[in-house]
Design goal:
The chain is mainly alpha-helical. The protein is built from 12 helices and 2 strands. Helix 9 packs across helix 12 and helix 10 packs across helix 12. The longest helix has 20 residues. The two termini are 45 Å apart.
Length: 227
């Protein structure tokens, strides 16, 4: 059963259209009394904090599911991803392409329950086990969450600038392969070079592109780092 459907959330926010929600939320978040009042009103509907309350709301109204096959990250997937990526004792969290925060909420819930910042021994005695459980030891100040939102426009502009800043050969390969959608053999024909030479130049183009894209504001780092 969907608890926070469009009508319910719109009423809570005092708006008549879901596209007004982001601006309205920013207004509320900047006012302490308003944001605490809104939070209490949400709690009247559901007290479970382990999932994204806005998931169904924004997915219903703003995800282009038919044309672009967009879906928000399901809660079970967010939990699985965090269980795979979390390292023992890790207290910081970075997400470069955050949406409504489903992935971050899953990490926050994990930190509250497991409290990896607490490094003392727990289970020496029953009493000690209880007193050192996360309900007593967890401190929000021990954790750091860093989220960034990548807009489509920023990425598109960044890709265009990154290709333009590559060397002439690399730029030619990238444009022919990914802008004009030519196959590798067709790109080779335009360059009049051997197959082996082309693939070496293509790999160099990939690296150049990653270097240039990393410098563009709002764009991800495509480098693969080895330990």
């Amino acid at each position: 059963m969907v608890k926070f459907d469009v009508k319910t959330v719109n009423n809570l926010l005092g708006i008549d259209d879901a596209f007004k929600a982001p601006d309205r939320l920013m207004e509320i978040l900047l006012e302490r009394e308003e944001r605490e009042k809104l939070f209490r009103n949400f709690l009247k509907i559901d007290t479970d904090l382990e999932y994204d309350w806005f998931h169904e709301y924004f997915e219903t109204e703003q995800a282009e599911r038919k044309s672009k096959k967009q879906d928000f990250t399901p809660n079970v997937v967010a939990k699985l991803a965090n269980s795979i990526a979390t390292e023992p004792g890790q207290t910081d969290y970075y997400e470069m392409a955050a949406g409504t925060g489903g992935m971050m909420i899953a990490r926050w819930v994990y930190n509250i329950k497991e409290d990896p910042a607490f490094v003392l021994k727990r289970k020496e005695t029953v009493v000690n086990d209880v007193l050192t459980s996360s309900i007593f030891t967890y401190s929000p100040r021990a954790y750091w969450y860093h989220l960034e939102e990548l807009s489509d426009r920023a990425i598109i502009d960044g890709v265009s600038r990154a290709i333009a800043h590559c060397s002439q050969t690399s730029s030619h390969i990238l444009k022919a392969r990914y802008v004009q959608s030519l196959q590798n053999w067709q790109v080779i024909d335009t360059m009049y070079c051997e197959r082996a030479t082309y693939y070496k130049l293509r790999d160099k183009a990939f690296n150049e592109f990653a270097d240039c894209l990393e410098l563009q504001q709002g764009c991800p780092d495509l480098h693969v780092y080895k330990n």
